């Protein structure tokens, strides 16, 4: 699949995961992401990086539950009580220990499900798409930002590969394992990552990657003015019901300023490509589906329809379930349809077949 298709899918999953707190919809979304993860191609370090992100997501889920238990929480269904010190009130209501309720565990589990969905989607993207393809597909206006993102995408696979290599070398030398030997594993990996980053920075500077003429003052002023306009528009829209029409005007002005900056940035740095990677029609339809899913999830959340919001502290009621939000969560697995329909790769010839002499006609 094209990198733009994967990016659109990840953004859609992120929007849907953050737009709802209903555990039913989040569970369906997680199952959809897992289905795409099973079918997505992963090669080399992508397998290791996805496994590391999956383990990290599970650890964050368990950590969310642990923090909910340690801090204590309010609710009508008390499960158990943890002993803890009495914290002064001037610390802002911080609690250590105390009664632990089922409502608190439910809220922590909902946060953990949203984190799992986003981390799994990012892991699929990181394993299925080469960072160099992402860099080649970005517009000229976002070249510098995409360069930083590309270097960041290579950090996790390379760090995991360094850890694996250091652990294998220590095992061959008969070094003991355990938590006490963790610094001996982590420190060489961090040092190796820093050295690799320095070498990459020096090579990129020698090839002129950072050499670009500055933007015109008008474009820089437009980019700087768009941020406060967007913040003011969001504030008026969400907190001032009577000022929503001016908020739309501020939002339109911010978009116009961003368009001015985009045009100037695209002209300052011309970009040429040896081969343009085309976006197939099926993947363009998938991007339209991803945009529709994100807009639909946000619309349901803003209008309060579809039982998108769930508050477990209101007596721990059974979450609502409606067809449209469930279809939005299930439809997030649209890359699985494209991955199933793709042609199977040709089987690689064995070494014996490659070395066998050709028969004479």
From TrEMBL:
Predominant location category: membrane
Highest taxon in the source lineage: Bacteria
Keyword Transmembrane helix: yes
Topological category with respect to the lipid bilayer: Multi-pass membrane protein
Localisation: Membrane
Entry keyword set: Membrane, Transmembrane, Transmembrane helix
Entry annotated with the keyword Transmembrane: yes
InterPro entries per record: ABC/ECF_trnsptr_transmembrane (IPR003339)
Transmembrane stretches, start-end: 6-38, 50-70, 105-129, 219-239, 245-264, 285-303, 323-341
Record-linked PANTHER family: COBALT TRANSPORT PROTEIN, PROTEIN ABCI12, CHLOROPLASTIC
Protein name: Energy-coupling factor transporter transmembrane protein EcfT
